[in-house]
Amino acid sequence: MNRILRFCSSRLSLSIVPLISVQITHTVRPEPLLVIEYRKANPQSQEFSGLAMVAQRLDGKACAAEVEEELLLRIAACKEKGIKPHLAVVIVGDDPASHVYVGSKVRACERLGIQSTHIELAADSTEEQVRDAILSLNEQAGLHGILVQSPLPNHMNEEALTDLIDPVKDVDGFHPQNLGRLVQGRLDGMLPCTPSGVMRMLSWAGIETEGKTAVILGRSRIVGMPQSLLLGAKGVDSTVTVAHSRTQNTAELCASADIVIAAVGRPEMVTADWIKDGAVVVDVGINRVDDTSRERGWRLAGDVHPDVANKASWLSPVPGGVGPMTIAMLMENTVRAAEQSYIA
Ligand code: NDP
Fold first, then answer.
1. Which atom in ligand 1 lies closest to the alpha carbon of residue 327?
2. Superfamily of domain 2-58+191-321 in the CATH hierarchy
3. Stretch 33-39: mean pLDDT
4. Does residue 287's CB lie within 6 angstroms of at least one atom of ligand 1?
5. Which letter, b or e, does each residue of 62-76 get, where b requires 16 or more Cβ atoms within 10 Å of its Cβ?
6. Within the chain, which residue ranges are assigned CATH 3.40.50.10860?
7. Active site residue: 172, 258, 303, 307, which one?
8. Is the pLDDT of residue 35 over 90?
9. I need a surface site. Which of 105, 141, 280, 326 has the fewest CB within 10 A?
10. Residue 279 CB contacts under 8 Å (≥ 6 apart), including other chains
11. Where is average pLDDT lowest: 5-9, 252-256, 286-290, 340-344?
12. Rounded Cα gap, residues 234 and 326, in angstroms
């Protein structure tokens, strides 16, 4: 049995309300990834052969759609018990990308019938104002999830503020109590959405992880570090190396890896020569790069160069890969918090 499935099944058995979404019963099979698609996204590429159809598309959008279908059933079960899952999103300031992300989260709530409360605070708000908002949301009965959109303005201590969120409502999974459980190998709690979304996507595609070598590029609290813990967890059983900005031989490390997960925030840093033939490559990066061929003057690029599709067996696209999975996992954490509220 696929080892990630075992990892997910362990969550199944530990959750009181089962996560029914982990079986690889695809209603939409992952599709082959035409390299030509990547060529279109990157017309400057000189290395494109134009012949290959190599990597399969690790289609986060399709996987997220399946997760949402399953969540609809769980939400209906909550509603039968008189509980409507409810998520509060706090956003401070006017960072355009953050507003786009929050908009996507609110729309996902609408699609699923999850109640959402959207709290916007001005960029010059004080830390105390954000603190008061969080504490008040903690106290609100019938509200199951709280998310504080990152980044917060520079004059605020983001970690101190997210530490204030009640761990049972911490649907981002960043509270030390939830991250601590992850370090202990207890995978039945609130897991950070992006890395758990990557795990779900690997499972969905039937990608084997047991005994595989994995290189994670990036060690952030929200992606790289928890990703390394999830891939190295018992039942998943990859052998994990974490690279960061001070790592000396990043390209060589990647070139020997069966699985490469890039979460650095550097557009197209991972090039085809870094990747072993047949490796699985997950691109977490979301970067805006100038593109004069587009009317808006920019395009989204991942951390992985499109030509990696010539080497990899699987590659997640940007957009349409990890992004939709992050939102799906946020919705799942919110539903889980609502379920726990009637079990508690
Ligand atoms: P951070 O900036 O917090 O962390 C980046 C990490 O990359 C750091 O650990 C840094 O090392 C490391 N790094 C930087 N340069 C290099 C390099 N040359 N070689 C190896 N490692 C390097 O970013 P995040 O983790 O928050 O996000 C990473 C990317 O993922 C971004 O593009 C972000 O937009 C995207 N993202 C996408 C999400 C999605 O839903 N798809 C969700 C969250 C993030 P060091 O620790 O030494 O500084």
1. 40
2. NAD(P)-binding Rossmann-like Domain (3.40.50.720)
3. 40
4. yes
5. bbbebbbebbeebbe
6. 80-172
7. 172
8. no
9. 141
10. 257, 258, 259, 260, 311, 312, 313
11. 5-9
12. 23
